[in-house]
Design goal:
It is a multi-pass membrane protein. This protein is an all-alpha fold and 307 residues long. It has twelve helices and two strands, in the order αααββααααααααα. Helix content is 76%, strand content 1%. It starts with a helix and ends with a helix.
Amino acid sequence: MNTTTQKGMFHKEYAWRGIAIVCGLFVIVLTLGIGAFLVYKGSDTFLKFGHTLWEFLGSTQWQPVDSAQGGGSVGTLIFIVGSLVTCGLALLIATPFALGSAIFMTEISDKFGEKFYRPVVQIFAGIPSVVYGWVGLTVLVPFIRNIFNRQVGHSILAAGIVLAVMIFPTITTVSADAILAVPDSCRKAAYGLGSTRWQTIRRIVLPASAPGIISGVILGLARAFGEALAVAMVIGQTTALPTSIFSTTKTMTTEIASQMGNSMEGGELKSALWTMSLLLFLVSLLFITLIHFCTSRGKKKLEGGNA
């Protein structure tokens, strides 16, 4: 290899490294910029209109005035509770099915799972949310109304089921990858000690892959928290605290989506919606932090097992 070729390879390597660094820095700057913009727009609720953090987070009185003078109330507890209850119900429904599917495609029928079942699950992840919402509105909502003898089928239950179907592929795929990351030596050691397949899965594979599975659950929860359109179509859109899974209510994302385009720029209503957006941004950062924490714990466990 002559000197000219070596110099060319050297320049290409550093050129691609520079491009990668620029792209990484751009993502970091973009994230910080979005956060700073949300802080700037959302701080008006407290600095300009004089509301307190406790009023914003702990009050159920949501009547902001769509004007620059303010004077309304900006309690978002209804939307926070609606988001938590709906997403929690979705997790309760989706997690057992997702975990069972992940175990099936990796430990029970790995060939069928990789060639057929995993692609089918991944197809669900690519379906637009409006399709889920429309199916929920035309099929699930009437079904809930008729089967439970309710006046309306729009409810937290309907939203939870729709969200559960939407986050099922995410939890399943991440959990399956976490289970596959467990070294085969751990399974062989368990079999060598006389364990059955189910004992190996329950006592060896699942505990070793638990951080990755938890990361998948958190990622699915983050997806559920950020969903607006499908939830808005089936939850009923009532500004009231839910009293049961058959109650109609609102979530933070549905309220932002329905009000942001119609509110006056610089008004109290729009400022409150920006503050709610900031709250969602902070929740997303919390989820990302938890995922990194679980992933780092999983790597340490696997390294310890390999050692």
